[in-house]
Amino acid sequence: MSMISRKQQRQQSLQAALDDNPFLTDEQLAQQLEASVPTIRLDRLALGIPELRERTKHMALDAQKKLQAIASEDIVGQLIDLELGHSGISMMQITPEMVLKRTGVARGHFIFAQANSLALAVIDAPAALTGIANVKYKVPVHQGDNLVARAEVVRKVETKYTIWVKIRNNNKEVFRAKFLIVSIPKEGDNENENSR
Amino acid sequence: MSMISRKQQRQQSLQAALDDNPFLTDEQLAQQLEASVPTIRLDRLALGIPELRERTKHMALDAQKKLQAIASEDIVGQLIDLELGHSGISMMQITPEMVLKRTGVARGHFIFAQANSLALAVIDAPAALTGIANVKYKVPVHQGDNLVARAEVVRKVETKYTIWVKIRNNNKEVFRAKFLIVSIPKEGDNENENSR
DNA sequence: CAGATATTAAGACTAGGTCTTAAAAGGTGA
DNA sequence: TCACCTTTTAAGACCTAGTCTTAATATCTG
User: Fold this and answer.
1) pLDDT at B193
2) CA dihedral A55, A58, A59, A60 (to 10 degrees)
3) Which CATH class is domain A6-68?
4) Which of A113, A131, A165, A190 has fewest C-beta within 10 Å?
């Protein structure tokens, strides 16, 4: 009776084929699965899979959003609280992209990114550069973990800030770092002051 | 004679509009720039800008590739040379996503990512975790810069490696870091050996 | 005003779908 | 074996966001 109908099997293959390559047209799918194009359309409808163009568009938007979240703009993670010049708190959830497949452990640079960008956000200046970072990873972090980072300015001498960032997962400290950050007060071209 | 023709001005606006939102159709562009659809098409042709669907597709592929490069799999940057257990070299170009818009300076965690992932790659073990990192940013790095990272194992005690990573831009050292990395030899669940 | 350049229009075609309606094929129970 | 029902395929009309070609109009400039 319900011996996995040909239909179900085909729909599974369809799903798999699109997971593998979302840029397949219905025609290509029809060929690959040895069914007619209308059948493919029915299957897509049944599975709630949109047409190629919609899929492409979603992928574009999606990937872009993730890129922005990871790469550009503001802070890595969500800024929860900020007292400019004093302290700040941010939160970040470990997504599948952040972990090494073999071990399931989050790659260190994402945690560093959260800490570093929070440290920079706390500085009360239009721009700032990280100079030195001392970092300690205490406990490995895994997918789905929710990291809470707390940054505190512990010293400020002229444009030089010393900032401590501690990251906790479920109230257990998993990471801590000390950043020495230099703020750049004016728009002047004085970026070479600490080079050579 | 060449007083910036209306045409040129319109084409600039077109480029800007698409930079801002690449999902605009010709019709929407025509409305926005107060020209006819055919004009928009001619302008696109002149500027070598493909149609909406092509743009969307390229974005999807592009962003996905970048995501992979930044987020998942292997190394951040390109692995150029690797002597397992001894040294390694990787290269990474600073893309627009990596820089802060205000200052044009690369965000520190990308450079950290390159260094850290290279350091991990050098370890001759199935898996490894970063324990401690001491990091110094010497010179700010900008968009388009080509960073060459060189990692070297300087000490190894049992499962604990000390690795130096130096990054140069155009033969000038811009970053250096020391990593203490613990390798995990077996598949056993001994991840808590260095916690608390 | 002539001539060149820029712009718009008109028509035919395309891909990769949509949605609706209809026909054919196939297996199953009585 | 027939009738029924599900599954599959087909056929036709429509859509978007283009393509490419050819032709007609504006508009500016010397």
Assistant:
1) 41
2) 120
3) mainly alpha
4) A190
Query: What is the per-residue pLDDT across B114-141, written as a single tens digit (0 to 9) for each?
Result: 999 999 999 977 788 899 999 999 999 9
Q: How many CA atoms lie within 13 A of A66 on its CB side?
A: 24
Contact B40, B14 (CB under 8 A): yes
A38 touches chain B (CB under 8 A): no
Q: Mean pLDDT for chain A?
A: 86
Count of A-B CB contacts under 8 Å: 147
pTM score over 0.85: no
Q: What CATH class has A75-184?
A: alpha beta
pLDDT one-digit tens code per residue, B101-111: 778 899 899 99
* Among A163, A162, A129, A159, CA closest to A149: A163
Helix ranges (H only) for B21-176 are 26-33, 37-47, 52-71, 108-122
The separation, in Å, between residue B110 CA and nucleotide C23 C1' comes to 61
On the CB side of B22, CA atoms within 13 Å amount to: 17
d(CA B186, CA B126): 8
User: Per the structure block, which two tokens stand in for A146?
Assistant: 């929710």
Q: Which of B23, B137, B192 sits opposite A130 (nearest CB)?
A: B137
Domain spanning B6-67, CATH class: mainly alpha
Can you give the distance from the CA of residue A2 to the C1' of nucleotide C28 in angstroms? 13
How far is Cα A125 from Cα A160, in angstroms, rounded to an integer?
Answer: 11
CB count in 10 Å sphere of residue B111: 28
Pairing of strands A146-157, A87-93: antiparallel
- The percentage of chain A sitting over the pLDDT mark of 90, rounded to a whole number, equals 53
pLDDT of A167 over the 90 cut: yes
Cβ of A190 under 8 Å from any chain B Cβ?
A: no
Q: CA-CA distance, B52 to B165, in Å (whole number)?
A: 44
Side chain identity at residue B127, one-letter code: A
Residue A183 and residue B104: Cα distance in Å, rounded?
A: 15
Instruction: Kindly list the domain boundaries of chain B, sorted by start residue.
Output: 6-67, 75-184
